[in-house]
Structure formats: structure tokens, C-alpha cells
Amino acid sequence: MNDLDLSRELTTLVAGIPGVVGVYPAGPLHRAVGLTVVNVAASDDQAPAKVSLVRDKEKGLRVEVAVGVLSTYPVPRTLRTVGDAVRAHLDAMEHDGGLDVRVTASHIETPNPAAPSLTP
Amino acid sequence: MAMRDDQEGDVGPEEVLDGLDPEFLDGHSVEELSDYLDSGRSPRNPDIENSPGCLIALDALGRLRSATWAMLEAEAAEDRGRDDKWIKNVMDNISREARAGRDIPITSVDPEVRLTVTEGSVRGLIRAAGDGVGGAIVGRVRLDGDVTVPGEPISIDVTASGVFGRNLLELAREMRAVIGASLREHTELNVTSIDVTIQDVHTQRTASTEVPR
Amino acid sequence: MDARSPLSDASDGILASRAADGDPAAFEALMRRYGPMLRAYAVKVLGSNDEADDVVQESFINAWNHVAELADVTVVRSWLMRLVSNKAIERLRRRKYHRDIADWDAPGPARNTPERQVEASMQMRALSDALGRLPAEQRECWVLKEVGGLAYADIAEELDLPVSTVRGLLSRARRALLKDMEEWR
Q1: What is the model's pTM?
Q2: Where does residue C97 rank: exposed (0-12), middle (13-18), buried (19+ CB within 10 A)?
Q3: What are phi and psi of B206, to 5 degrees?
Q4: How many C-beta atoms surround the C-beta of residue B112 within 10 A?
Q5: Binding partners of C (≥3 Cβ pairs within 8 A)
Q6: Residue A31's domain spans which residues?
Q7: Is A74 in Cβ contact with B186 (below 8 Å)?
Q8: Is C179 within 8 Å of B123 when comparing Cβ atoms?
Q9: CATH fold of B98-202, please?
Q10: Partner residue facing B137 (CB), from C6, C37, C101
Q11: What is the mean pLDDT of chain B?
Q12: Which of B113, B135, B185 sits opposite A117 (nearest CB)?
């Protein structure tokens, strides 16, 4: 499997986790020099590949995930669930060297915020 | 550029405005009066203020100015039905990442997994919590202290607007309570204080028909 | 967010502070509040609806990028006016390369569709028409000064005209408009 497909798989996996409302293109790593970076922009016609994958000979695989989460669930719990799911998915595959998974909540959505009270 | 620099020279005899020439303005020009109007008629110029001709011209200039603003308001009002497309255009073209701010760590038991929430998302959380208090609209949100280091003391500073008629002390207290609860539930920040400053009072111009839940 | 969002009750300062913190909903509320007015202003400066749309949209994108640098968030309206003025001036400057001042006609007010219910009073219509009849440079200078609040020197510098020319253009515009206005009475 190439990294673009892997990114798509991870994106779909993460998007399905309860409490996750969106998966966004991750991180400033797109601009990293001399590393193999999945180009998330090149995937308009297929399932989105928003998860960033960076392979480094010394440091191994670095995975960056940016999510929007719902405040209906405690945010730390949702983030841990995402981290565990990504970790488990990668552990089921072969990868050389270290693993560095970063999960960031870049947006916390509060559903249906209460309408302002009409009575002062 | 072939443009004449003279100020009054091209006004033909038929265009001469009775009452707007210097001879009727006690030696002042319309431009001078316009500048005087711009200055808010301050400092007061008795020479102008005591000239009936000048007062008439000032009045005309003032009416022209307010008519201009009224015209724009009226044209803007005609235009409101058009709003949505251009607004969507702009919203699609603004970058939200620029305001992400600092990365705030969340404990992870797995050393190979790092978890963070962005400062921008926590600001959004605080806004949503504060806005949820009836009659409150949150303004600016600041997280003071090094949020990137777990356990560092953090103080939260929030400005807000309270609806007219609401007890503002009580409003601030309720906001502090819900903001504190929300931060405890969703972050691991060591929040040592939450300051809510009600800096504005608003009325409900667009009375919502929604019932509070 | 719809037009009845609770945010539409908030002051400019509150909305600008939120926008500076990265709240898109607050920024949208500001756009709803001032967009139509700013567009009307841009139409008057430029004499063109299409260009006015572009100018207002570009100005708001600019505003989002810089609202965090706004030292006094309560002056957001005049700040937005200034952003629109600057973008409109860019257009005028570009246009000057393409036009011979002698044969460029200001388009008339472009919104005179007969079927549209015009709420503006006769007087405002008359003023709008009078503005539309002014030579382009007179109209540009007058609107930038009277609505945009630009100083003579700024207009002169931005439009590459001598200050004396700007004064002359303004003087003629003012006279023409005052004269028209006297006729409404």
C-alpha cells in the first residue's frame, strides 16, 4: 500500500470515530523539506487523504491528524480514541523504525448552542 | 495629465450658484466651509458662525453630506437580499488555520502518541460556553500563562457583552462557572483564575423567536 | 449562521475581537452588517457593480487577515471603509493606464432595474443620479473624501494627481451637487 492510500484509510477511520466531526489537512509538515510527504491536495477525485504521513530514515514514520471534535464528549477522551485507533491500524501493518503519532483538535464544536434568553 | 488646476475657473455664468460665491460668503470659499464642517466646526470660527451667508452654505453642505449617507444606507438596504453568495465566497477564501495559536497538550498514556488541542479551539470552546449563558455574548478570549507546559498556572481573561436589563455581576458569575466547567471537562489546563469583564451592553435588536432551552 | 444570529446584536468591538480570535461566525456577522454599505460606497467610487463586488470581497479577506492587528476594535467600521477605499483606489489606478480621461464616461447608477422596488426617496435617487452625471474623476474624489474620509493629500497621492487638481475636482463636484440639491427643494 502506498502512503496516499494509507492516508485515505486513516482519514476514513478517524472520521468514523464518535465525537469526530471532521478531519482536516494536517500540519505544517506539508512544507517539510527532504521528506516524503503525502500530498493531500492531489486526491480530489477519491476518498480524501487528510492525514499527513512523513517517513524519515532515522525517526521512522510520523503521522499527523487534525480533527474537529464535538463537545458532547470529553475532548481528551475523543483524542485518545483517535490516537489508539491510528496506532492500532499502523501496528497491524509493517513499518520500520519509530512511530510518532500526533493528534490535534483544531476545532471544538458545540452543537446547538442555547439560544440567548429572551428574559433579561 | 491634461487637467486644469484652477478651482473655480470653469464654472460658466449660468452655473454660478447664488449664495455660494465668496462675495455672499463674506470672503470665505465653499471649500473652506467644507473643511470647517469636516473639523466639526471646532475650534469655533466666529467670523463664519456670524455670517448668514456662511451659515446657509454650511447648512447646505451638511444636508448634502447626510443625504449622501442616507443614499448609501438606502442602496445598502435594497441590496440585502443579495448577501449570501458573496459572503460564502469570502468565507471560502479565508484561512482559519492562521488563528490556531499554541498547542495545548493532553495526557497520553502511549509514548508514541502525542495529543494536543489548539489554543484557537479552546478559545472557541470558551466562546460557546459563555454564549450559552442567556444574555451573554463573549468577546475576546485570552489564555495567560504557558499553556504548552502541563500543569502551568493559567488565567483566563474574557471580555463580554451583557444584554440590557440583566444583572451584570450575576451574568459574569454564571459565565465564569460554565467556562470553568467546560475547561475542566475538555482540557487539562491548570486554570487558576477566570476573569470576565462585561465591557458592553447590547439590546436584542433582532429579537429571536427561538425559545431558550 | 443566519441573519438572525444572536451575534447580530453584538457591538462592532465584540465582533471584531472575536474575529481576531479566529471566530468565523463573528466575522460573518460583521460582513452582514457592513457589506451592503461598503458595496454601495464602492459602487459610488468605481461606478461599476462588478468591480465593487470584487473590491468588497477582497477587502473583507484582507480584513480577516489583519483584524488581529487592529489596535482599537471599536473603529472597525471606519477601518473597513479605509480597506475598501484602498482596494477601490488600486482599481482606479489600474484603470487610468487604460483610459484617456477625455473619453471615459462614468457608467450611470447600474441598479436602475425598473421592476425593483426602490426604497430610496426621490431625493436620494436624485443625488445618486447627480453623482452619476459627474465626470469620473470628480465623482471618485468626492466620494473618497466625503464618504471614505480621505484627506486631500491622500487622494492626491493615491491617484497621482497634484493636490491642487484634487481641490479643483472636489470644488467642482461640490458645486454641481449643491446646485442639484438646491433644485430638489
Answers
A1: 0.80
A2: exposed
A3: -110, 75
A4: 17
A5: A, B
A6: 3-109
A7: yes
A8: no
A9: Alpha-Beta Plaits (3.30.70)
A10: C6
A11: 85
A12: B135
